[in-house]
């Protein structure tokens, strides 16, 4: 018949063509037996019309392609293994570094592994290189970068500025409550009852209180309530009478009034209160000078918000440690604000220690009027959120002065915050110290004394 090759005669030595002629109804079958082209055309027309010559009705004019091996369900033939790669000793030695980095081909890796199983010096070198590779990049936390939320919000607010923006001094609290809420969302019901030990420093000694994850959130709820009350919001204690308005007294009263230990149900009122606080301070303007009472002392609103952000981070770390959850420090900008608050509170804490008889005036006190430079300690904070602060030693009203510097202390930023939280004893604080040892000791103990339950 006339096919794809026109009048070219068929080659009888092609087995595939012969096989096709044996099938009933296939083109080139019975109609190809003769030499007449008309007969072949008739056979083709007969196939299209509904019946091939000697075939079934509806048989295709052109045969379907034969199925591949995969389509038949038959197993693929086994791969023919190649000869193992044979390399000289010095070549295999040069491949050890690439092998440790997993940068070899499969054949090279197999050759190296076979070689180090027989060559002890190369095996030792391979082990050293593999250990070195593990040190090239430390394992990263699975938690999100603390600065990610700030960057995303800044990008969004640049495109569409808020009608009523959150004050800059309130953003650390907003960020830390959001991070803690994300942690709480990830933990299961049973983990809300995981034991947590709250730690702080009191009267130059370590103090602690045992509670649960839910108990920690109840503690944050009641102490954040001090800010809420100052802003005119509802007090989370409600009708519960606290013996004092200090944070510890409010917390103990809330715990005692609970008929059952706090559960994950405490998360909703805590988060709603934090949202209400951020929403309300946005209407106060940029001053933040409204006083917030902590019972035995007061802080202006902008400092109270930093204090609550600091406590939120510290207790979030307590919770994360209890439930084995990765948790990173705050962003550098927020951490710097928290450190600055602690540094500004140190002169007052030093004066309190002297009034309590826990510290004596310096051997050569530099008595000056308020607002004048006095004897000072240089506090150098290294790492994320770091900086330098001159701490007046003899009077809260004095000014720190480099001309009257008597001591210099260097601390890592996160380490200093843990010292101020009462999580690191002053005697064990990893600090570089130069100058008046008594002044250094007083400042470190005063920093730990800033902590509370």
Strand order of the largest sheet: 6-5-7-8
- Relevant CATH superfamily of the largest domain: dinb family like domain
Instruction: Just give the CATH class of the largest domain.
Output: Mainly Alpha
Fraction in helix: 40-55%
Radius of gyration: 40 Å
Q: Can you name the CATH architecture of the largest domain?
A: Up-down Bundle
Structure class? alpha+beta
This entry's quaternary arrangement is single chain
Topology:
Blueprint: H1 15-22, H2 37-49, H3 69-72, H4 89-94, H5 96-100, H6 106-116, H7 120-136, H8 146-159, H9 171-186, E1 195-202, E2 205-212, H10 213-230, H11 247-257, H12 267-281, E3 291-293, E4 298-300, H13 301-323, H14 332-355, E5 373-382, E6 387-392, E7 399-412, H15 413-420, E8 432-435, H16 437-449
Parallel strand pairs: 5-7
Antiparallel strand pairs: 1-2, 3-4, 5-6, 7-8
Helix pairs in contact: 9-12, 9-13, 10-11, 10-12, 10-13, 13-14, 14-15, 14-16
Overall description:
Residues 94-123 form the Putative zinc-finger domain. Residues 1-23 have a biased composition (Basic and acidic residues). Residues 35-57 have a biased composition (Gly residues). One of its GO terms (molecular function) is metal ion binding. The chain has four domains: 1-61, no CATH class; 89-136, no CATH class; 161-323, Four Helix Bundle (Hemerythrin (Met), subunit A) (Up-down Bundle); 339-449, Nonspecific Lipid-transfer Protein, Chain A (2-Layer Sandwich), CATH 3.30.1050. The chain has 453 residues and is of the alpha+beta class. It is globular. The model is unreliable at 1-55 (pLDDT under 50). The strands form three sheets. It has a four-stranded mixed sheet. Strands 1-2 form a two-stranded antiparallel ribbon. A two-stranded antiparallel ribbon has the order 3-4. The chain has helices at residues 15-22, 37-49, 69-72, 89-94, 96-100, 106-116, 120-136, 146-159, 171-186, 213-230, 247-257, 267-281, 301-323, 332-355, 413-420, 437-449; strands spanning 195-202, 205-212, 291-293, 298-300, 373-382, 387-392, 399-412, 432-435. Helix 10 (213-230) crosses helix 11. It contains 16 helices and eight strands.
């Amino acid at each position: 018949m006339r096919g794809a090759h026109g009048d070219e005669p068929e080659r009888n030595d092609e087995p595939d063509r012969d096989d096709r002629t044996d099938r009933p109804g296939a083109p080139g079958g019975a109609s190809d037996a003769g030499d007449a082209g008309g007969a072949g055309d008739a056979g083709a027309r007969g196939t299209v019309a509904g019946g091939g010559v000697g075939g079934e009705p509806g048989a295709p004019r052109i045969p379907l392609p034969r199925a591949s091996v995969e389509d038949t369900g038959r197993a693929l033939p086994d791969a023919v293994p190649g000869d193992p790669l044979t390399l000289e000793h010095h070549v295999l030695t040069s491949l050890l570094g690439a092998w440790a980095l997993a940068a070899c081909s499969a054949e090279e890796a197999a050759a190296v592994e076979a070689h180090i199983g027989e060559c002890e010096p190369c095996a030792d070198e391979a082990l050293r290189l593999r250990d070195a590779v593990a040190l090239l990049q430390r394992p990263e936390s699975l938690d999100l970068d603390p600065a990610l939320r700030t960057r995303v919000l800044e990008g969004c607010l640049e495109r569409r500025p808020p009608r009523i923006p959150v004050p800059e001094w309130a953003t650390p609290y907003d960020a830390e409550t959001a991070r803690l809420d994300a942690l709480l969302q990830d933990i299961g019901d049973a983990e809300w009852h995981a034991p947590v030990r709250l730690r702080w420093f009191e009267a130059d000694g370590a103090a602690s209180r045992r509670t649960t994850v839910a108990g920690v959130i109840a503690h944050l709820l009641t102490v954040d309530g001090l800010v809420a009350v100052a802003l005119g919001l509802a007090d989370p204690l409600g009708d519960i009478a606290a013996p004092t308005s200090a944070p510890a007294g409010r917390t103990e009263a809330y715990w005692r009034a609970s008929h059952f230990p706090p559960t994950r149900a405490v998360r909703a009122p805590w988060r709603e209160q934090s949202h209400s606080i951020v929403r309300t301070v946005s209407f106060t303007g940029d001053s933040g000078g409204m006083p917030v009472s902590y019972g035995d002392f007061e802080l202006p609103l902008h400092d109270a918000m930093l204090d609550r952000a600091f406590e939120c981070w510290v207790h979030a770390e307590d919770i994360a440690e209890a439930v084995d959850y990765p948790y990173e420090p705050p962003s550098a900008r927020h951490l710097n604000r928290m450190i600055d608050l602690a540094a500004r509170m140190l002169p007052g804490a030093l004066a309190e220690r002297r009034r309590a008889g826990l510290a004596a005036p310096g051997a050569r006190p530099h008595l000056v009027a308020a607002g004048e430079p006095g004897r000072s300690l240089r506090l150098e904070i290294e790492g994320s959120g770091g900086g330098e602060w001159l701490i007046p030693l003899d009077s809260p009203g004095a000014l720190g002065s480099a001309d009257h510097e008597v001591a210099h202390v260097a601390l890592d930023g996160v380490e200093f915050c843990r010292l101020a939280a009462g999580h690191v004893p002053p005697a064990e604080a990893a600090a570089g110290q130069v100058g008046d040892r008594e002044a250094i000791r007083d400042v470190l103990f005063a920093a730990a004394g800033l902590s509370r339950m």
